Write the structure tokens for this entry.
Amino acid sequence: MLELYRGELDVDKIFFRWRKWGERKNYGAFITFVGTVRAENDIEALSFDVYEPILTQWFEEWQQKARAKGAYLMMAHSIGDVPVHTSSYMAAVFSPKRRVALELIDEFVEDFKANAPIWKYDVITGKRRYARERSHKIVGSGLLADT
């Protein structure tokens, strides 16, 4: 399940809903990752643009990998501004066994950072500034495409 939200994530609400879902499905492992916006370099917030068609395709490919291992993925991400000390990203893996979930969450989060079509901006004094130095090239993404 892929969920997109305007602004910061309500981590507690999402976590509770996801946990209840996993209980109903009788999964034995529920591993989460929560990304929090750090206060650094004078930023007030991070701001995110998302290209949903490619993100959906990327996520579905991961969901297929998870299902092949008997697991299930969930992800929530913010669109727009997310103030410091709040969350912009949550991911979870459900699995009958912990080892699969532990390995999969690591692989998924690392690939997310490298390949998900989400563009990040720093918000400083109310203005968005593209965070090019912290961005990764994404094949076929225009501005950041491999050449």
